[in-house]
Amino acid sequence: MTRFKITVLPGDGVGPEVCREAVRILHALSVFYGNEFRFQEKAIGGAAIRSHGTPLPQSTLDACLDSDAVFLGAVGTPEYDHLPPSERPEAGLLRLRTALGGFANLRPSVFFPALADCSPLQRSRVEGANVLIVRELLGGLYFSQPRGFDHDGNVASNTMRYSTAEIERIARIAFEQARQRRKKVTSVDKANVLETSQLWRRTVSRVARDYPDVALDHMFVDACAMHLISNPARFDVILTENLFGDILSDEAAAITGSMGMLASATIGGAVNIYEPVHGSAPDIAGRSLANPLGAIASAAMLLRHTANMPLEAADLEAAISQVLEEGHRTSDITSRGKSQALRTNEMGAFVEQAFVAMLDRRFSYHAV
Ligand code: IPM
Ligand code: MN
After folding, report:
1. Which regions of the chain are under pLDDT 70?
2. Are the beta carbons of 111 and 127 closer than 8 angstroms?
3. pTM of the model
4. For this structure, is 12 an active site residue?
5. Which residue among 136, 139, 338, 341 is least packed, with the fewest CB closer than 10 Å?
6. Phi and psi at residue 335, in whole multiples of 5°?
7. Could you tell me the distance, in angstroms and rounded to a whole number, from the CA of residue 354 to the centre of ligand 2?
8. Pairing mode, strands 148-149 and 156-157
């Protein structure tokens, strides 16, 4: 019996290629256990503008609302750069996030010993780093009103607005995540300048009283940008608002060595969304060059946060580490002259093999 309905939104650029590999892994698990997952594919972003004339067709939204999880590849294509923000491919994703209600975007960034050579940072600086960025996803500059251009197009504005309730709910997610990790939250703001940040800081400090076992410190976002690359190992959970989180999570990719490695989960709403952080990468789209590991790691997050399969999630993460240890590389994580780059689907196949072997071992262990 199918337990989980997954809506897959391949989207633009490399989205379809990396989605295919994540789905292949979940499919393998499904076969192993006997039909855990059922997948249906829908259009979003530029692909949906092309096929339906809008970046988030009603049929896509309905399917997402009716599923247990959404798995998204990427949105964004230069083809539609000329459109106003509200009609661009990205607007489809932003509308979807709002409709599904997930306000907490979890973005882990982990140091893999096998990839130490790929990071632009010295090994001694990134070694042992394991940061979870908890990004507020439904508020701030991305969504607050008023916004727009004035009548002659010479002035534009956006608004950063946060309410206590919005800050409180994302803070609770961060503290709860920290409890399952190293019990430290760094709340990142710009409280020396912005009122929203002052409210943010005050509210987070108040929420922290409910989590006496978790240490809290506050940091300005500019300082955080510097510490994140000079001493990333000092962080456990970083809690921050929407735009700061968008920027810092791309920066955190330097820890791992490639944007292609980063996964994300959006939780807290009616339906969770899982997506790699790397985006559509139009420059390499359709050439089987993309790294599917960020998408596959997002599938691991789906196993953990939607399917309640923490053991299988850990197995899948271990399978990713194993293929890296074995030296398998896509072009974004190839150290010069060391190994030949794999195609997207070849990398997916290696992870699937390693993952299924782990499930086999787990299964035979339980059988005796
Ligand atoms: C991300 C992306 C999105 C964002 C875009 C595509 C709307 O950059 O998920 O980080 O800004 O949130
Ligand atoms: Mn981003």
Report:
1. 1, 336-339, 366-368
2. yes
3. 0.96
4. no
5. 338
6. -85, 135
7. 30
8. antiparallel
Q: How many angstroms does the Cα of residue 237 sit away from the middle of ligand 2?
A: 18
Atom of ligand 1 nearest to the CA of 75: 6
Residue 189, phi then psi, degrees to nearest 5: -150, -170
Nearest residue to 70 via CA among 274, 313, 270? 274
> 246 an active-site residue?
yes
The terminus-to-terminus CA distance of the chain in angstroms comes to 25
**Which member of 190, 211, 315, 332 is catalytic?**
190
Which structure tokens are listed for 254? 């330097």
What are residue 220's DSSP bridge partners?
A: 189
Ligand nearest the Cα of residue 264 is 1
Among the bound ligands, the one closest to the CA of 85? 1
H-assigned helices in the chain: 15-33, 45-52, 58-65, 89-100, 123-126, 164-179, 195-208, 221-230, 242-256, 293-305, 310-325, 344-367
**pLDDT per residue over 48-78, tens digit each?**
999 999 999 999 999 999 999 999 999 999 9
The CA distance from 158 to 65, in Å, is 29
Q: Please work out whether the CB of residue 253 comes within 6 Å of at least one atom of ligand 1.
A: no
Task: Compute the distance between CA of residue 259 and CA of residue 229 in angstroms, rounded to an integer.
Answer: 15
